[in-house]
From TrEMBL:
CDD domains per UniProt: PBP1_ABC_sugar_binding-like
Record keywords, A-Z: Signal
Organism encoding this protein: Plantactinospora mayteni
Main localization (coarse): other
Protein location: Cell envelope
UniProt protein name: ABC transporter substrate-binding protein
Annotated InterPro entries: Peripla_BP_I, SBP_2_dom
Family annotation (Pfam families): Peripla_BP_4
Length: 345
């Protein structure tokens, strides 16, 4: 089987785990046809007990806790031996390197990794793979080889955010307005791609809008609140804010609500922490770009098990992203996406 890239439409995002169970667990391990007489079950049994480590960016983040929950569910479904890990913060790069080193030492057959850096983990990933360990990378692509990548096309998703912010500031009569970029961490490829896409999307129909500043909060909620509070005071004619992850989104919403600025400043953010979802309902955030971390975890474990079993998973898999605002935040079809199961490593 040749490796391939797959992009899943946003309309199927909330239901995509069912597809993974039915197609991957049913066929990939068995290698048979639809009428192979239970080959899928035999293949799944063959990988039962396989040791797989899952390492996320930050165990204190509800986004990554959802990925861990997806991984745990896949581990149960496939019968693999699963261990769940992660540093406390997305800024903890060296601790994450040590977790990968620990996985190598413990004899893991595969690692599902959401890396906190596109480059800093390359050496340890190479060491794992040279020792025969399969590595599936999730969310943030690395600049070395892996056995598969699962993650949102962040340029495309960022463009969705930029297009929506343009719509919002245009509706407010400020298509040429000033925009703030509130960012979590510098130098992370995921966030670089989101911002690049955001600028492209904003410029399509709001070419005169100006991004006045990028502020970096180091994934510190209180710092994000303070930065946005200061910006709202310093730039009284600020038209919009783009917050590029959950910490930035929650911090922006808190600051906007503290300043009573929801009616004059449009906010578009990434991710779907409960506080962000509630801010969409209350008006502190106008729209969120929602990914599916539960799927990241589930599919990551499925692909890791496939790789150990000798099957080729898609080389790149993009689950897509959904734009959520007041009009659909309580839609039944988005309930599992906005309130997924969570667990800690």
């Amino acid at each position: 089987m040749a490796t391939k890239s797959v992009s899943l439409g946003a309309a199927g995002l909330a239901a995509v785990v069912t597809l993974a169970v039915g197609v991957v667990a049913g066929r990939a391990f068995g290698g048979g046809s639809d009428d192979d007489g239970g080959g899928g079950n035999a293949g799944t049994a063959a990988i039962a007990g396989t040791k797989i480590d899952v390492i996320v960016k930050a165990t204190e983040s509800e986004f990554w806790q959802s990925m861990l929950a997806g991984a745990k569910k896949a581990g149960t479904d496939l019968g693999v031996e699963l261990d769940l890990f992660g540093p406390t913060s997305e800024a903890d790069i060296e601790p994450q390197v040590r977790l990968v080193e620990d996985a190598i030492s413990r004899g893991a057959k595969a690692i599902v990794l959401a890396p906190n850096s596109s480059t800093a983990l390359n050496g340890v990933i190479d060491r794992a793979r040279s020792g025969g360990i399969k590595v599936i990378v999730v969310d943030n692509a690395v600049r070395t080889k892996s056995d598969g990548f699962i993650g949102t096309d962040n340029v495309k998703a960022g463009a969705q955010a930029g297009q929506r912010l343009c719509e919002l500031i245009t509706q407010a009569g400020k298509p040429n307005g000033k925009v703030l970029h509130e960012s979590a961490v510098s130098g992370i490829q995921v966030l670089i791609d989101r911002f690049e896409g955001f600028k492209q999307g904003l410029a399509e129909k709001c070419p005169q809008a100006t991004i006045v500043q990028t502020l970096v909060n180091d994934n510190d909620l209180n710092k994000a609140v303070g930065q946005v509070n200061d910006a709202l005071t310093r730039v009284p004619d600020l038209a919009g804010i783009f917050a590029d992850n959950n910490t930035s989104g929650v911090g922006t919403a808190k600051a906007v609500q503290e300043k009573g600025a929801a009616d004059r400043v449009a906010v578009v953010a990434f991710d779907s922490d409960p506080a962000e979802v509630e801010a969409v309902r209350s008006g502190g955030i106008d729209a969120i770009v929602v990914q599916n971390p539960f799927f990241f975890g589930y599919q990551g474990v499925v692909e890791a098990a496939m790789a150990v079993a000798g099957s080729n998973a898609p080389q790149r898999l993009d689950p897509g992203a959904v734009l959520v605002d007041k009009s659909n935040v309580d839609a039944e079809e988005l309930r599992s996406l906005l309130n997924p199961p969570k667990t800690k490593g």
